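Hi F.,

I've been meaning to write this up properly since the lab meeting, where we talked about keeping a consistent format for the predictions we share between groups. The idea is simple: the sequence comes first, exactly as it goes in, then the structure tokens exactly as they come out, then a line or two of notes. No screenshots and no reformatting. I'm using this chain as the first example so we have something concrete to point to.
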Amino acid sequence: MSGLAYEEENPLGTCRSFHSRAPFLFSVSRHQLTTNQSAICYLNSLTHLLESRLCVRVNDEKGVGFMDLWTRCDVEERLNTRKKSRYLIVQFVLRILNCLDPMHAIFSFDITFSFSSTHLFNVGVFGFLNEWEQKVSPLNVLGWFDQNSIALPTTAPILDQRRAIMQKVKPIIDAAGASGVNILCLQEAWTMPFAFCTREKRWCEFAEPVEDGESTQFLQALAKKYNMVIVSPILERDVNHGETIWNTAVIIGNQGNIIGKHRKNHIPRVGDFNESTYYMEGDTGHPVFDTAYGKIAVNICYGRHHPLNWMAFGLNGAEIVFNPSATVGELSEPMWPIEARNAAIANSYFVGAINRVGTEVFPNPFTSGDGKPQHTDFGHFYGSSYFSSPDASCTPSLSRYRDGLMIAEMDLNLCRQLKDKWGFRMTSRYEMYADLLAQYLKPDFKPQVIADLLLRKEPAP
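Output, unedited:
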């Protein structure tokens, strides 16, 4: 589950450098524990539950957090305070160790923290360790994503809405560039409100061509300026094929070039996700883009519910998979901290799970086909974006209510190291899976079910 979230101020405490093995100290101020500002599965649910069950306090009067307690306790003291020790151990299990150390923050990105204070953004900067190797040099990559709300009301002119969002995102990208970020991913359909719930076709005006669309040109200039790869999920209009609309991620290279695009593979038909009113399943397969900073892929939103979708990107060699999403609390929030993290483990790559934030209100009421009264909003987009690693560690999630940005320093060697350690590729039975899928696609498919014959025994006369 995603762990600690940062709210009204930057986290207090000291930290180690990325390659240091020294203990990491972490403390949380009291006001960061307020319920309405927490991210999913943050201290309010997990830590408070543990605190009540194990009778320990999250903070002492000086604001010392549980990580401080762990590192300051010598062995004898830990043995004498069994409940406190159990509490700390459970916390470590919930957050998972990264190469035998707790997940750690990095506080050297002064520009990023300054930006977050100026623009009232929630911010997190973290580093993933890997196992030291004698012959292989580190392959460190700085990945960045942001979660944001829309900039203007949905009643504003469409062109104004799009340009306002672009102006809102620009200083975020500027801060990323100044921080030396290598790869940046924006949220699903970042240029617009997530208006597909309304089923109104006027929102198609947000669609734009990949090659020369306004958002592409805007990001190409920034990618080239900052020597940065940018993933831009937009509503695409394919002018060469009957003006067809797609949910598409455009991959812009660090020279401002368009490397390629990927169209959303799985389209939801649940709740108010009326996306098939506008576009259908993509036709680009499971491409992996070999960029200047690593092999990346994009599993757009609903695709995270499909394990084979994740697997296909892994089979094609992905090292980082971004999951730009737009999803609301009532429907998917219990799944959110699990799916991307599980995918990172099962496929031995890093995952950036990105969700927009806020509640978007539309001018005309609509219904959901469930007998409930009509309404004007889709629900609350709960943010809570986070990075996860192939060794099961993950960063704290961003806020559930506030705009935010996350930087993660990733050594891509960890992908190979975990493949060596667990041997998931070697022990998989792809030929068995392929045979089952081939049989399943046939009209005369019969499930391989072996019945208990005793259950069908005729009763005695």
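Notes:
The chain is about 30% helix and 20% strand.
Residues 206 and 305 are 26 Å apart (CA to CA).

If this format works for you, I'll send the rest the same way.

G.
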